[in-house]
Amino acid sequence: AALAPVPRPLAGRHVLVTAGPTHEPIDPVRYIANRSSGKQGFAIAGALAALGARVTLVAGPVTLATPAGVDRVDVETAREMAAAVDAALPADVAVLVAAVADWRAEAPAGQKIKKGADTPTLTLAENPDILAGLARSDRRPSLLIGFAAETEHVIDHARAKLARKGCDWIVANDVSGNVMGGALNRVHIITADGVETWDEAPKDAVARKLAERISDAL
Ligand code: CTP
Ligand code: CA
User: Fold this and answer.
1) From the CA of 127, which ligand is nearest?
2) What is the ipTM, given to two decimal places?
3) Which residue is closest in CA terms to ligand 1's atom 14?
């Protein structure tokens, strides 16, 4: 018997996904980073590709396999991630899942800093905000989705972030428990229409549900 064709509702669409942390060098052997396994972002990229989208995944340093059907661009720093996002435009949808380091060392040392009598002081510079920049850009994707990892007041912080960033949805997760690096996630979808709380589920199930929601919204 012939199999029914797999529905590909996102065929012809280009979706940009960022995932993982960024690493900001202090010297050749040390860096500043956020805790992020990249699992949720990679699962989202794979779920969008499974629905037929052309997916560009801009990935920070993680040890994950590239999901089937996904074009991957590896980057290290926030500024490299911003440049790779810019180079991947235009996109119909962008889902920015990456845990971008908010600050970088202003002047990374060219050689390993040696331990000595004085403890070094690190001067930081703020990194570009990729999501806010995309929201303001003349190549803004028509559906722009940010993530928010919060440890308290999850929904209030996420609502404020939606307004501040100028994106269409914020997917908020409570990372006060074991979410970071774990297999399960519990998220709230915050839009101009309100808040929807999803049951805790494996990250790939959250990814499939989000991909379907994106497909319905286009
Ligand atoms: N983000 C980004 N570029 C940055 C920082 C964040 O694109 N330099 C994106 C993240 O990928 C995420 C969203 O913005 O989609 C929210 O990130 P978050 O760190 O929660 O927001 P911040 O504005 O940096 O606020 P906070 O002070 O809570 O870190
Ligand atoms: Ca941040």
Assistant:
1) 1
2) 0.98
3) 131
